[in-house]
Amino acid sequence: MKRTAILAFAVLMLAIQMVPATRADDANYFMLTGKVYFNSTQEPVKGAEITVGTYNAVSFDDGYYSMRLAEGNYTVKVTASGYRTYNGNITIQGSNVTKDIEMKKAITKYADCVILGPAVLLPLAAVALRGFRHKRVERA
Length: 140
Fold this sequence. Notes:
single chain; alpha+beta; Immunoglobulin-like; 2 domains
């Protein structure tokens, strides 16, 4: 009987040690989740880079992202190829937050530019356009 009680106590102590301890600061961390999408069509933007303070994430094929953040105020920056950079702010305080991010297409227009035929003609075009200047114009 005594031996069974000691064995049961030892098993109980071992079980308690196996339960993962919760860090005291875990209570101050919350999930930021959301979807990055193209504003006109609502299509997901995959591979968008989301930077929140010093934390980083990348959106999945379905446009969704998630990251674990401590409570606080953060600047948000989202970049994706072919889209304008998104800049904003977010506050994490006391609960999980969902933040969907609407991206707009980057419009790049080349002014004063002439494109001549296939690549074979490019050396000739360079001679013909000697002194020609072009400028890249981005519209907001």
